[in-house]
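From the shared-data thread, chain only:
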Amino acid sequence: MGATIEDKLFLDRFNVADDSHLKIKDDAVCTDACEDKPCLYLCPANVYRLENDRISVNYEGCLECGSCRIGCPHLNIEWRFPTGGYGIRHKFG
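Structure, as tokens:
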């Protein structure tokens, strides 16, 4: 039997920076203009969550895939790679 997604994600390791490499540019765009909130569904790591009618960004578990930056219909997510030495490290095997 093959490995599950959870098994594969368990192999990933994170070196988390103090500052986020992901940012919502304007909270009002998310609350007022974005009905579908695709960031909640596009992110495979569940980084974006709806909490008290606001989108929270839990960057610590980001897989650095970039789905959020191209999936936001309002281009309201600022995405960059984490500072050198930080972010995800994929371990294969």
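The chain has four helices and six strands.
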